[in-house]
């Protein structure tokens, strides 16, 4: 039992962590928490199933098309729901505009795809039992994403520009960085990461439109625990959340595991409002 | 108080609409609703009852979203909780069956409790967190309703409570729900118009100023969460009866969205707007039946359009008064003679505010580096120095925003708690801000009335039901606010929206708000910045008159002339340390000051 808790816990935890990284990637360049993060994860599953099962494409082109479509959606998010409200960040209008867009995405998926969970294809067919691919695939995707982001942020010019904008927007612009293009690029990147989360976790979560709000919430918890914009915190928080949730699932059953997660979330937030790895609040006066 | 009547500025300003004029739209809606049963069409009864029940929930949610600005997007969860509580208790499958009305009351109690539980993160955290917790809560409640079959009937559902005669007919139940909706309109309008409503809006738009006025945000929000939760729970119970059978499918997120968007379409800080929004959104799917499948998509698209195009909502469209131009060339004419009445019996200053050896560092920068300062009642104390010398920081330490690393801060020998700005107003310490902090959508009068929030004695319940003490306090506060506005020279602008004022007028409005407290100490942060020469003179006279009433004034300023004209004592800061202190005459001739700062 312990083994299957570990396997499924780490698997869903990795999906949550990836959604957390999706939130963070968008937040870094825009200071906006976007409700589309969970929907991108949902679309990763839905589009993957659409391209591979329904349209019969091979796995790799299916993956590439899924990531590309979600990256495009990321750019649309930036243009439609983020850029117009950036001027008045303190009024929190982005909460409403990204929520509206997220709901439009979710509802379109429900009507045009299906309101029932649809199967997601086996991709590689390697391993069985607790080593089945649906358990290790999300963990592998998460590890690959972290390594990729580390490389991007530390070794490439574009990545360093991202970091510069996240660190100090004004200074970065004063240095002549193309802030708007970089922001759009980071939204495209976030779209791809979110899609990868849903694609890798597809066999676990299925291709289901209602995964959107679920991933929105469970992907936000690692961010809240780890501190806004902190990817390391998101990964630790995501894996911890996955393990905690699956353990509660096995021990006390489905209803109470979601209650337990929710209670824990509120308690931790009240005890450590900045997250467990977050920085102190800015000066207000 | 003949002072206000003789107000000098001969401005013709639009008068505030009378109470009757403001009531008229509500009475019209009520009359229309009462005529509806004569149609005899039972289908309309269903739709209209639904609109009434939704409004019971939205009226409470409006205080949270529209007034407090907290984005509660998952309120359908509380509706579901209320519906299941009422149904389960009335059906008696857990406890002995309760009568329907008792079950409805329990639904309200459960709603109130969970309204607070879900709201807890809002007390300390950023907006997005609260939106998320309410969303998460909405997801979980539906899951539980599905899984907890013994109690909720799972996916099969459970019958709603049945109402006794004469409420068991469609129109009988409609009139009952209409009564509930009318009652909720009255109750929430009472809160909105009380000091609680003004404080909610102040927390939303000017949180720092609200704190300086002594508004205790957690306590305030908990009270509102209790009320909104109770209303949502009761709405749930009513909803279960209307549906006659409830399953988890009845509480989709679409419904939550409807409630939330109804408030936003209606507009922030309005009762009428969200009421119209609720009616509109309830009717919309009925009118556009072919689009029913896409209704959520349409709601979401509507939300996007509102946010991007008309953030003010219906209320802003209906606000014709604020579109009329204000007269040009207005001048602020303070009337210091009003101060005697206003501050006549103000709280007696028990002694001086004393700072001893205060040190405050931000990282490696020592913003204040061992400062001693005395602020005595009835004196005007000037604080000058170059930019970055620690003037405003000193003010922020005294008003409790910063916690110094070393040194003591006392009032009449008793320590003032550091880092607790909301505790300053009860001690009679008021302040203004370098950049005026105000509620743009509220009237000048309402903005000023926030200043006396700590003096309100009537409770939330008294405000909810407009009990006599609340009404009396409200009248006193309004009279005092008009007096404070007269003293600050803004009597003619009392009923104008604050965001239409000129910059100089906002500075005087902040002073009026601070005077509402009848402060023992008043701290002004660059009140003359951006004022014309003539206005600075009037400001100086006003400050002298305030000090003459026994109030101690701390004046942070760059205008050396004003400082030397009106101050009793002056402290010059440089790099967080005292460069010189003394009377204006001594400072004016102080060698270092002259060379370093005055440039004489």
TrEMBL record, chain B:
Predominant cellular place of this UniProt entry's protein: membrane
Limits of the ABC transporter domain: 353-600
Stored Pfam families: ABC_tran, BCA_ABC_TP_C, BPD_transp_2
Signal peptide range in chain numbering: none
Keywords per UniProt: ATP-binding, Cell membrane, Membrane, Nucleotide-binding, Transmembrane, Transmembrane helix
Localization, UniProt: Cell membrane
Membrane topology category: Multi-pass membrane protein
Transmembrane segments: 19-38, 44-65, 72-95, 101-120, 127-148, 171-189, 224-246, 258-284, 296-318
Protein name: ABC transporter domain-containing protein
Organism: Paracraurococcus ruber
